[in-house]
Structure formats: structure tokens, C-alpha cells
Design goal:
With 117 residues, the protein is mainly beta. Strands 2-1-3 form a 3-stranded mixed sheet, with no helix packed on it. Helix content is 3%, strand content 25%. It folds into 2 domains: 3-55, no CATH class; 65-117, no CATH class. The N and C termini lie far apart (53 Å). It is built from 1 helix and 7 strands. Residues 31-43 have a biased composition (Basic residues). Residues 23-51 are annotated as: Disordered.
């Protein structure tokens, strides 16, 4: 049985890894796509961040370059100004006219790296 594991990373991007079993067809040599297809008994698992210990390995972000990783994992949000975010999504909660708003911005190339002054 093939397994497909999708990891949500600290930067909020996702990556998927597939482990193929012996029943999975080999990639066709005539096809321009070299990607192998899983067997018909594929099982899928989604792993949120942070992953449980049994998933142990550090999974690298597939996005090159990843703005979050380029900023060393600490950044200041260009949308709301919240400083020292330590995950890829801004967790700022703003209260305006007694209404609660969440920023939820994902670190981008415009956001700056958080630095101590």
C-alpha cells in the first residue's frame, strides 16, 4: 500500500511525500512526466504543524526561496505591523469598534526580518 503524507510546515507552506509500494506502477518511459503514480490502495495522512514526535524528521519548505525561511523564522508583518512573528502566518488580533479581526497574513517578500535593536 502506498502512503502520501502532506506536511503543513512552520512557514505555512505544505509539502507532500509519497512512499510507493511494490504494486505502484513504474513511470512510463515514453511519457514526458517522470512522476510515478501510487497504487489503488493509497492512504493519505495530513500532518499539522508542529508534527507529532513519530514524524520526527525536519521537512524543508519546497518553495525556493521561502520568505519565512529567508528571514530566519522571525519577521515583522507588512500588513498590520505585528513584530516578531515566529510562524509563517501573522497571529495578530486587532480590536476595532469592539470587533475582533485577525490579520492572518502569510510572510511575503515585503515583510521584514525581525531584528533586535
Amino acid at each position: 500500500m502506498c502512503t502520501e503524507t502532506t506536511y503543513t510546515l512552520r512557514c505555512e507552506h505544505v509539502t507532500t511525500r509519497t512512499a510507493y509500494c511494490n504494486d505502484a506502477p513504474k513511470p512510463s518511459k515514453s511519457s514526458s512526466r517522470k512522476q510515478r503514480k501510487p497504487c489503488k490502495k493509497l492512504t493519505r495522512t495530513s500532518v499539522p504543524y508542529p508534527p507529532p514526535p513519530e514524524f520526527g524528521q525536519h521537512v524543508k519548505c519546497p518553495l525556493t526561496p521561502c520568505p519565512f525561511e529567508e528571514r530566519g523564522g522571525y519577521w515583522n508583518c507588512c500588513w498590520c505591523g505585528k513584530e516578531w512573528n515566529d510562524t509563517g502566518r501573522c497571529r495578530c488580533v486587532m480590536i476595532i469598534d469592539r470587533q475582533e479581526y485577525r490579520c492572518e497574513h502569510i510572510c511575503c517578500e515585503t515583510c521584514e526580518q525581525a531584528v533586535e535593536l
